[in-house]
Each structure stands twice: as structure tokens, then as C-alpha cells.
Amino acid sequence: LTNCTTIIPLTFQTNILTELRKWKLSLIEHHKLQMKQEKEKHTAHVRQLSNEMENLKELLHTYEISIGRKDEVVITNLTQALERQKERIELMRNFTLWRIQHVKAKQEEYANRIADRQFRTALMKKVWAAWRSLSEEKWKEKVAKACQLRAEDVCVQLTNDYEAKIAELTASLEQTKAEILRLHSEREQYEDTMKKAFMRGVCALNLEAMTMFQGK
């Protein structure tokens, strides 16, 4: 995960951190709202307990008035009953406070667990998207390099073919030039032979003419 994060562009990391801060603030606001609701419930419950205590105080006052009219045994029994009732109310109050704190701690633990899970999920999604984008870029680069190498191979092959063809045509051209030079040489020899033959013919005619003139 660290290696993947190091290759993510800085702007991309900044956007990720901004989104995560927004989600964290949203979760904190949600938790504050739940805490406020829980406090309101606790206040209502304490108010109810206070009303019950006020009613019990009134009942105690009534019992005190009644106790004043009864003998000492009745007074003792009522006092013990009231003490037990007070202890019971105190126990209920303490238990309620403990339960509220326990529920609050559970809610905080659950909210933190959900926040961590969402944070990890969001981070994994961002990293996965970045890794996939980088992999696609690397794949495109690899394909482009492969195409470039293939094109270079084709160009080299075509160059070699053309060079071989040029060499073949050059050899053919040299051979043709040599043939042309040979034909030119033969033509010059033929022309020279024709000139010599023509000159011999002319000389023979001249000699024959001279012989004829001399005979006459």
C-alpha cells in the first residue's frame, strides 16, 4: 500500500485527503447528533426520576404525617420501608447512569469502527483506481514500444530488401554498361573495318582505272 501511495501524483493524494477529511467531519457531526439525542434522553429520564423522587417526597411527607398519629412500631416499619425505597431508587439511578455510560461507550466504539472501515474502504478504492490507471498507462506504453519495435524490424527488413534490390539493380546496371561498352567497341571495330574495306575498294578502282588509261 505504501509503494502504491508513493507513485500516486501529489494532486491526487491531496484530493484523497480532502475527501477523507470531509467524511471524517461528517461522521463526527453524526456522532455529535447521536450524543445530543442520548443526552436529551438522559435528561428526560433524570427529570422523570426527579418527578418520582418529588412524588416519593410527598408520599414521605404524608407518611410522616401518618406516622405522627401511629405508635412507634408502625413508625419504625414505615421508616425502614422508606429507606429501602430510597436505596432502591438510588440503585436504579446508579444503574441508569451506568447503562447510559455503557451505551455511550458502545456507540462511540461502533462509530469509530464504522469510520475506520469506511476510511480503509475509501482508501483502498482510491489506491485501486490509481493502480489500475497506472497499469493501463504501463500497458499502453508496453504496446506502443512493442509496435515501435515491430515497426523498426519491418523498416530494417524493408531496408535490407531494398538494399539487396538496389545492389542487384546496380550489378545489372554495371553489366548493362559493360555490354554497351562492348557494343560500342564492336561498332567502332566494324566501322573501322568498313572504312578499310571501302578504302581498299576505292584503291582497287583507282588502280584499275589507271591500268585502263595506261593501256589506251
TrEMBL record:
Question: What would be the name of the gene that encodes this protein?
Answer: Poc5
* Organism per entry: Pluvianellus socialis (Magellanic plover)
Where would you say this protein principally sits, based on its record? cytoplasm
Q: Does the keyword Cytoplasm apply?
A: yes
The protein in question is named Centrosomal protein POC5
Q: Which UniProt keywords apply?
A: Cell cycle, Coiled coil, Cytoplasm, Cytoskeleton, Repeat
Question: What subcellular locations does the record give?
Answer: Cytoplasm, Cytoskeleton, Microtubule organizing center, Centrosome, Centriole
Its cellular-component GO annotations read: centriole; photoreceptor connecting cilium
Positions in coiled-coil regions: 32-66, 159-193
GO biological process annotation, one example: eye photoreceptor cell development
Instruction: Name the family.
Output: Belongs to the POC5 family.
What is the annotated role of this protein in its UniProt record? Essential for the assembly of the distal half of centrioles, required for centriole elongation. Acts as a negative regulator of centriole elongation.
